[in-house]
Amino acid sequence: MAKELKELTKRAENYSQWYNDLVVKADLAEQSAVRGCMVIKPYGYAIWEKMQQQLDRMFKETGVQNAYFPLLIPKSFLSREAEHVEGFAKECAVVTHYRLKAKEDKSGVEVDPAARLEEELIVRPTSETIIWNTYKNWINSWRDLPLMCNQWCNVMRWEMRTRPFLRTSEFLWQEGHTAHATREEAEEEARKMLHVYAEFAEKWMAVPVVQGVKSETERFAGALDTYTIEAMMQDGKALQSGTSHFLGQNFAKAFDVTYLTKENKQEYVWATSWGVSTRLIGALIMTHSDDNGLVLPPRLAPIQVVIIPISKGNEQLAAISKALEPVIAQLKAKGISIKYDDADNKRPGFKFADYELKGVPVRLVMGARDLENGTVEIMRRDTLEKETRPLEGIADYVENLLDDIQENIFLKAKAYRDERIYECDNYEEFKEKVKEGGFFLCHWDGTAETEAKIKEETQATIRCVPFGYDQYSGVDMVSGKPANKRVIIARSY
């Protein structure tokens, strides 16, 4: 293995450093000159593109359309929904001037004090306010509903402590915003989009998730309910991987968005918003990858199959290339993304290590002996198992192998997660065990005081009231008070 690919911190030594190393060495992203921001490199962006494409298809199947709204939001808009502005106030970047001027000594530029804006503009931390100001003009009667828009864009939330993909001041995401005639319809939409996210996470990312509803303390600013998918990373910490919010009529009332009902009455509309971000790439890395580098699910891998010829001289290379041509054509016909790496500026060993580091699911290698025997060596990235097979029928075999890898890494992640979901009713035991990671299924008395105490004493938070788990009465392990719900508690990113 080439020297520059070797220096990857082991997960067991320092999980956090392993993650940072992998982001850089696998060519996913790097630190930007702008504090708290990152440059997403072509390979990292290719993963995001595949995520975008699939999610976009899934959104549109539900009737959602794409639109685009301004980056800059008048400060007064944020002031209209008190809970919302309070939730984002500390994270907002503010534009105060519209012009620079050259310094008198010609040493650079400075803000022109004469160019102060009459009203400051906020770089969007999220777009509810600007979108609902717009929806007011789009919605008049029941015939205009439901209105369901999504936008793919960047947002800015001024973060003090950043990590690539997981938490950066600027990040890419999608945000859906919908308006409905009834409460029931809006609540159904919020839950529907949560299920879309869960399906995408499990079927495409191969990441098992717990679906649930956030506590009042943890819900989105301005929402009545926030639904979440929570994934467990290899260090046992939770990563919130997507949220869907039932906003009630809060934003409709703040921006006076009403519609004329069939009965000729003016009513406020009901709203939802929902989003996932480039944080999903962080989830992908930390759920599947190993000490050799990335492990990518085939459905999201930019390169699904890399083919490497090993030859001595141009004549032998030409013969190997000719033998592989039909295989490449067959794989492409199946919609499988291929890279045929016949570059002569890197040794085969370097290529093997590089593609392993980048998580390419399947590697095919053909050398002189394979050429003679009509065979090819196959390696699958998830298990690092190698085998030699005849060229005949190899395209069908690879197609099935990709499906097998997709399923295998999901089942592996699910088994890992399921083994680390613990039922717990002893607070002292919890305080010790939570240090090692895991999801703890505990009774909660429903009070913010108990929630705050857990967070202060253990750095763990209530992730959600989970769906899919039996809910029955019990006793809160912290307060000793009666509790009628069980929650997932974990440390998180």
Describe this structure in words.
The structure is a single chain. With 493 residues, the protein is α+β, with helices and mostly antiparallel strands. The chain has 15 helices and 27 strands. The strands form 7 sheets. The chain has an 11-stranded mixed sheet, with helices on both faces. The model is unreliable at 1-5 (pLDDT under 50).
Q: Can you summarize this structure?
A:
With 493 residues, the chain is of the alpha+beta class. Strand 25 and strand 26 (482-483) form a beta hairpin.
Strand count, sense and closure of the main sheet? Answer: 11 strands, mixed
Distance between the termini: 32 Å
- In CATH, the architecture of the largest domain is 2-Layer Sandwich
* Count of the domains: 3
Give short descriptive properties of this protein.
single chain, 493 residues, alpha+beta, BirA Bifunctional Protein, domain 2, Rossmann fold, 3 domains, 5-stranded mixed sheet, 28% strand
Write the layout of secondary structure elements.
Blueprint: H1 3-6, H2 15-25, E1 29-31, E2 38-40, H3 42-61, E3 65-66, E4 72-74, H4 75-78, H5 82-88, E5 93-97, E6 100-102, E7 109-111, E8 116-123, H6 128-138, E9 147-156, E10 170-180, H7 183-203, E11 209-213, E12 225-232, E13 238-248, H8 250-254, E14 258-260, E15 266-268, E16 270-277, H9 279-288, E17 305-309, H10 314-333, E18 338-340, H11 348-357, E19 362-366, H12 368-373, E20 375-380, E21 386-390, H13 394-418, E22 421-423, H14 427-433, E23 439-444, H15 448-458, E24 461-466, E25 474-475, E26 482-483, E27 485-490
Parallel strand pairs: 3-9, 17-18, 17-19, 22-23
Antiparallel strand pairs: 1-2, 4-8, 5-8, 6-7, 9-10, 10-16, 11-12, 11-24, 12-13, 13-16, 14-15, 19-20, 20-21, 23-27, 24-27, 25-26
Helix pairs in contact: 3-7, 10-13
